[in-house]
Amino acid sequence: MEIIQTCDEMAMACRVAARPLGLVPTMGALHAGHLSLTTQARCDNAILAVSIFVNPTQFGASEDFSSYPRSMERDLALLEEQGADLVFAPPPEEVYPAGFDTWIEPGAVAEGQEGEVRPGHFRGVATVVAKLFTIVRPDRAYFGQKDGQQVAVIRRMARDLNLGVDVVTMPTVREPDGLALSSRNAYLKPHERQAAPVIYRALCAAEQLWRSGEQDAGALRSAALAVLRSELLVESVDYVRVVDAETMVGVDAIGEQAAMVAVAARVGGVRLIDNVVLV
Q1: Is the bond into 91 cis (omega within 30 degrees of 0)?
Q2: Per-residue pLDDT reduced to its tens digit, 114-123
Q3: Which of 113, 75, 94, 142 is nearest to 241 (CA)?
Q4: Are residues 224 and 201 in the same domain?
Q5: Which domain holds residue 19?
Q6: Is 136 inside a domain boundary?
Q7: End-to-end CA distance of the chain
Q8: Active-site residues: which are they?
Q9: Based on the domain organization, do 119 and 47 belong to the same domain?
Q10: pLDDT tens per residue across span 210-263
Q11: Are residues 166 and 190 in the same domain?
Q12: Which of the residues 50, 183, 191, 251 could staple to 29 if both were Cys, CB 3.0 to 4.6 A apart?
């Protein structure tokens, strides 16, 4: 396993690598969700490349960039076990050198949900992923469905800009009680951790109502909100949205096109997101 810290060295290593090449972009603090991506990428490709980079440009001024979980030594050990060939772990100044002033501005797919609550977030995500795609030139890139809107933004960007990358979406990996795996789960105190699966229960309530024949998006949203409001440790709900799973535009009713029910809520002081796709 080769660990690389500069853009030029990573680009060169990828240019001479066997093909196909699969990329798994991460911010580190790896868990079983990340490893489901690397496992699939390892199976699909001759070369497995993984990036570990806590991207400062996708964090707002009041968000947790400085305290975001970091565990580089452990992450590298896990990736070696996974059979990773290349690990790109650059410092921030390598990705954003002095004078950096070019950004990817995603369109309507990034406007609602996380884009509304976290202004500038998807500009940072799209820009760093575009840079990774340009440096690595992967044949395939792997992302988890938990960040459903992020996947939609990246898929749209790859298509609109003809980046030549097959964006592969993998199912959300969950704890036995339904909590979606996330690096931020480490922030949860024990009593908050016990309460956190309420987010998945809320999504399941909406999904079960849909499976029973309900197509009205407002009814699905109300069902999810009722579950969230039943838990005292849910301090706030940023949104419960029912949207087209590709465009992220809100829908009034579930039709033939796949829809996504998405939730962002704070359990104690920890902000968690999750979603289910209705297909």
Answers
A1: no
A2: 999 999 999 9
A3: 113
A4: yes
A5: 2-170
A6: yes
A7: 39
A8: 34
A9: yes
A10: 999 999 999 999 999 999 999 999 999 999 999 999 999 999 999 988 999 999
A11: no
A12: 183
